[in-house]
Design brief:
The chain is α/β, with parallel strands linked by helices. The protein has helices at residues 17-29, 63-66, 75-87, 99-109, 126-141, 158-163, 189-203, 230-241, 292-295, 311-326, 329-350, 372-385, 407-425, and strands spanning 42-46, 49-52, 57-60, 118-123, 145-149, 181-184, 209-214, 244-248, 272-275, 286-291, 355-361, 364-369, 387-388, 390-392, 396-399. The strands form three sheets. The protein has a seven-stranded mixed β-sheet, with helices on both faces. A four-stranded mixed β-sheet has the order 1-2-3-13. It has a four-stranded antiparallel β-sheet with strand order 11-12-15-14, with helices on one face. The radius of gyration is 21 Å and the shape is globular. The structure holds pyridoxal-5'-phosphate.
Length: 426
């Protein structure tokens, strides 16, 4: 495949002829529930570049939705996958002692921003990790209720989708959801007023609340960064009532914000931390990490997973953690993220009516538009110019490139994004 420097390169109309064949086949056979954004048909990837089935090259500022943290086909990750595949493809770590499983758990535990000893459970996805954490906090506290936030996205299985409150469509037709979950406003003083004066007074006694589930930066809800001190106040509220604090870092973690975990920017220590996207650079691997005493409170058989922490995803996970450290990807995420934020703020200054906010930390950047239609139009214009970005929230676009993105690629992306915005501005 051509080097990253040649992207973007759009040789055909979009979708191209081969892409249209895939689209026809796909639309005839796949579930209608899949929320496709635009007709990208990826064939292969290197670094920050995706080549589609017609040979068009795109600059990938989605990273497979914040998943390909070390870039596409990172040589170290690919080598680790190849080597592990030749040794052992699968053995259930729930039932036996897989060496690479505990190595991955140890490597993750060593990164945890959690006080005291930490234990780890590995999963296949974010939603599975959220479900496990939900079971853990209820089991460990003996308390039935859980609080999460409006705008939150925690996944699509029943417990995770009940915690989710970003868009009503995620609940439509699926009720009744899991009992015992209530929501509060995110990221403002209203959070504390609502929890203390509405929830605790009218809906859920504080001493029966097991946990608060929070994204340190809301992802699907719009890449919203809470104000300084907000998470510390939440921690303090939890401590006052014996409630556990669960940080869902499925989107914000694994180095995306320039620290391994976004909550590290605040100094707040959660009791449980959930991770998935980015952890194995594209292979299905999730995890929930908890204070050891919580995971020592449930016994054998209380929770398990046939595939969770399977050897090949663990090999990819260990190679990902090694690449993040050895290649200085956290520092790169901070530096390139700052460059992107500066460029996007200049763009906002040029289009103050259209671009209403630019926010983010590291390579987790949101650009909010005045309307959902404008956000969608910019997403489409960017695609046609060879830049892959994705909507989030009501009217925002997220930029979440691989952590290996270069300053040069960031400048190209800024130019393409500005062209897309200019086109929409008319
Ligand atoms: N939690 C957060 C914060 C997420 O952003 C997502 C997915 O976007 C999930 C959980 C669910 O992860 P998965 O899609 O791997 O089930």
């Amino acid at each position: 495949m051509t080097t990253t420097r040649t992207a973007p390169l759009i040789r055909t109309e979009l979708p191209g002829p081969r892409a249209r064949e895939v689209l026809d086949r796909d639309l005839a056979v796949t579930s209608r529930s899949l929320p496709r954004a635009y007709p990208l048909v990826p064939r292969r990837g290197r670094g920050c570049v995706i080549e589609d089935v017609d040979g068009n090259l795109f600059l990938d500022f989605n990273a497979g939705i914040a998943v390909n943290s070390t870039g596409h086909a990172h040589p170290g990750v690919v080598a680790a996958i190849r080597e592990q595949s030749g040794e052992l493809l699968h053995y259930s770590a729930s039932d036996f002692y897989l060496p690479i499983y505990s190595r991955m758990c140890r490597a993750l535990a060593d990164t945890a921003p959690i006080d005291g000893p930490v234990r780890v459970f590995l999963t296949n996805s974010g939603a599975e990790a959220v479900e496990g954490a939900l079971k853990l906090v209820r089991h460990a506290t003996g308390r039935p209720y859980v609080i999460s936030f409006f705008g939150a996205f925690h996944g699509r299985s029943y417990g995770a989708v009940t915690l989710t409150a970003s868009k009503a469509k995620y609940h439509k037709g699926f009720g009744p959801l899991l009992p015992g979950v209530v929501h509060a406003p995110y990221g403002s003083d209203a959070t504390f007023d609502h929890i203390e004066n509405v929830l605790f007074r009218h809906q859920v006694p504080a001493d029966e609340v097991a946990a608060v589930f929070v994204e340190p930066i809301q992802g699907e809800g719009g890449y919203l960064v809470p104000p300084p001190g907000w998470l510390a106040r939440l921690r303090e509220l939890c401590d006052r009532h014996g409630i556990l604090l669960v940080a869902d870092e499925v989107q914000s973690g694994a180095g995306r914000t320039g620290k391994m975990w976004a909550i590290e920017h605040t100094g707040v220590r959660p009791d449980v931390l959930i991770s998935a996207k980015g952890l194995a650079s594209g292979l299905p691997l999730g995890a929930f990490l908890a204070r050891a005493e919580l995971m020592e409170s449930w016994g054998a058989g209380a929770h398990g997973s046939t595939y969770g922490g399977s050897p090949v995803p663990c090999a990819a996970g260990l190679a990902t953690l090694a690449a993040i450290e050895e290649e200085g990807l956290l520092a790169n995420a901070t530096a390139v993220g700052d460059r992107l934020l500066t460029g996007l703020r200049a763009l906002r200054a040029r289009h103050p009516g259209l671009v209403v906010d630019v926010r983010g930390v590291g390579l987790m950047i949101g650009v909010e538009f005045d309307t959902a239609e404008h956000a969608e139009a910019v997403q489409q214009e960017a695609f046609e110019r060879g830049l892959l970005v994705l909507e989030c929230g009501e009217s925002s676009i997220r930029l979440s490139p691989p952590l290996v993105v270069t300053a040069e690629e960031a400048d190209t992306a800024l130019r393409l994004f500005a062209d897309a915005v200019d086109a929409v501005a008319g």
